[in-house]
Amino acid sequence: MPLAIPVRGLLASFEEGNTRCGAMTRLTFEHVSKSFGDVDALVGLNLDIQSGEFFAVVGSSGCGKSTAMRIAGGLETPDFGDIKAEGRVITRVLPRDRGFGLVTQQNALVTNRTAAGNISLPLEIRMLHHNDISKRVTAEADQLGVGYLLDRRRNELSGGETQAVQLARALVARPRVLLLDEPLARIDTDLRLRLRNDVLRIQNEYGLTILLITADQEDAMVLADRVAVLDHGHLQQVGPPMDLYHQPVNTVVAGFFGEPPMNLLTVGVVDDGGLRYYMVGGYLVPAHHRPAERFAGGAAIIGLRPEDLRLVSADIDRSLPAVVDRIENRGSRAVVHLSADGLASADGERGIGLVASCRGFGPRLGDRVGVVIDPARLHLFDTFTGAALLHPI
């Protein structure tokens, strides 16, 4: 493994200056690959994170997102490829010399120090004057609303308070890039919302370049300007959150974005009198004529957003018969889990159900209902590759 080398000059704005944070930095991954034994954590990752952008990398456990963050921060060295900051290769630059701030989901505070002592650590390492350290620590804590915690020690802080102190410690050093490794995981909802608002405020006020790593698609959709989706080390799609929601490039992205996620079904494509239909259970849904042509007599994968499904009385014709298995009441809407005969998942697993998100229709557990599918709201995917072929307009 190449030895890390310090690069002076990267921290000019980090060490001195009157700005609230360091100079904004464009962060680039160029063909970055990393393996651990026989497991490929990242495969040829290319990302271009713009200066001042809030960028999120998402995916399920083991997708490679944390490896990407650790490589960006200098905690791992890629097997191949480079990391660049403002066009300069920093792959071998020591973590302390990159001028990046890091906040993780783990409690990384020093046990025998107060919150103030933990926040001041980066400034002490750079041997700033005591009075300057005290002023900057107090100012940072006040900005995040945690000034009242400065005299408390690690074991006296809640999970959310710990994350706020770690965020203050990362920001007090005026970083060029802020790396957030699932900082909102496993904390109470009210504190999660407050920290989310704090991070957004910091981003808006100071234009920091932020790289967020998260398995929570809601955090990514609320916070990020753009999102990258990883799956088994491979980049799937990059774009604004709502683009990924409305126009996922494949079934991997379609199944990740959305709460609840998209229903993905393998359905037969049949001809009837010159017209094509998707066979959803025993229910015929008009098919996209041209795209479905290649699947005639075979199978295709369709995607149905839960909010696009309409539940009606069981006796209404032209609806898919289903039974209500479970109801999740979420205030103004209900998430309804349904079972219906003859359904198969995108992977071909049979006996799966549907999930609908409903307003104004209140079925009860065990009720028989009809599911109405609007053909105009169908997504279509390739059966073999999972690639998207068509989305609703």
Please give a structural write-up.
By secondary structure, the chain is of the alpha+beta class. It has helices at about 10-15, 65-75, 115-125, 130-145, 160-170, 190-205, 215-225, 240-245, 250-255, 290-295, and strands at about 25-35, 40-50, 55-60, 80-85, 90, 100-105, 175-180, 210-215, 225-230, 235-240, 265-270, 275-280, 285, 300-305, 310-315, 320-330, 335-340, 355-360, 370-375, 380, 390. The strands form four sheets. A six-stranded mixed beta sheet has the order 6-7-8-3-9-10, with helices on both faces. The chain has a six-stranded antiparallel beta sheet with strand order 13-12-11-14-20-21. The protein is about 25% helix and about 35% strand. It is elongated, with a radius of gyration of 25 Å. A hairpin with a 2-residue loop joins strand 9 and strand 10. The protein starts with 11 loop residues before the first helix and ends with a strand. The longest helix has 18 residues, at about 190-205. The protein folds into two domains: about 10-245, Rossmann fold, CATH 3.40.50.300; about 255-390, Nucleic acid-binding proteins (OB fold (Dihydrolipoamide Acetyltransferase, E2P), Beta Barrel).
